[in-house]
Request: fold
Amino acid sequence: MVLSAADRAAVRALWRKLGNNVGIYATEALERTFTAFPTTKTYFAHFDLSPGSAQVKAHGKKVADALTTAVAHMDDLPGALSALSDLHAHQLRVDPVNFKFLGHCLLVTLARHYPGDFGPAMHASLDKFLSHVISALASSYG
Amino acid sequence: MVHLTADEKSLVSGLWSKVNVDEVGGEALGRLLVVYPWTQRFFDSFGDLSSPDAVMGNPKVKAHGKKVLNSFSDGLKNLDNLKGTFAKLSELHCDKLHVDPENFKLLGNVLVCVLARHFGKQFTPQAQGAFQKVVAGVANALAHKYH
Reply:
């Protein structure tokens, strides 16, 4: 499932539309992940995970920045995300299955906030993009 | 068996009562075929699936989506006995249709995306959590008779 030119254009266009709100949506995606997939909370035992948590918001901003970097480097995701991959593999030691949960919750968040933009083709492009991001994040494992 | 709290049951039934099951079925199945194109392998007889528009407009996709989601809807009335409710369908999907149960999880997640798009603000993280439990339960029940 290669990222076609059309996929990249679609993702870039949506990202421009998200503007400065990427942090807000990434934070919501994290909240959804913790609620819908409670096992993910095991990595955040040191966080306050209550609604409106400043720690979750700060973490959402980090995730948002990483995704924005990914959007800017879709032609070389493994390269652009290699430091993050090392971090998740060797320091945070997060099981890669969890990346899919966050990816899914990002899709849900975008569907909820941008129903008009979230047509089947955009859904497909976003899902592919996130799969590539997840692959790149998992590349340092093992 | 799916363990939903009283609040979760209320969230699920409240939102589901507002769902046009026939339409959402077609939308969810269509998106499955577009987003995960290998799932088209089960639908060679459906005709034109060559583009997102072709898939979403395909009358056989809509009809089949309607069938699938009405079945899912039955499951929602029997959350305490999903395995029993879907036993026959599970056998069918294994023995006759030869569908990898992974596909049930994919469809479940696509359905969650469709509901999020449809309900917007009402599809809170708690509502999503409740529906994720339901779709996981249905997927497990459908896989239960596989051998």
Q: What stands out?
A: The domain at 6-25+67-143 of chain B is CATH 1.10.490.10 (Globin-like). The two ends of chain B are 20 Å apart (CA to CA). Chain B is about 70% helix and 0% strand.
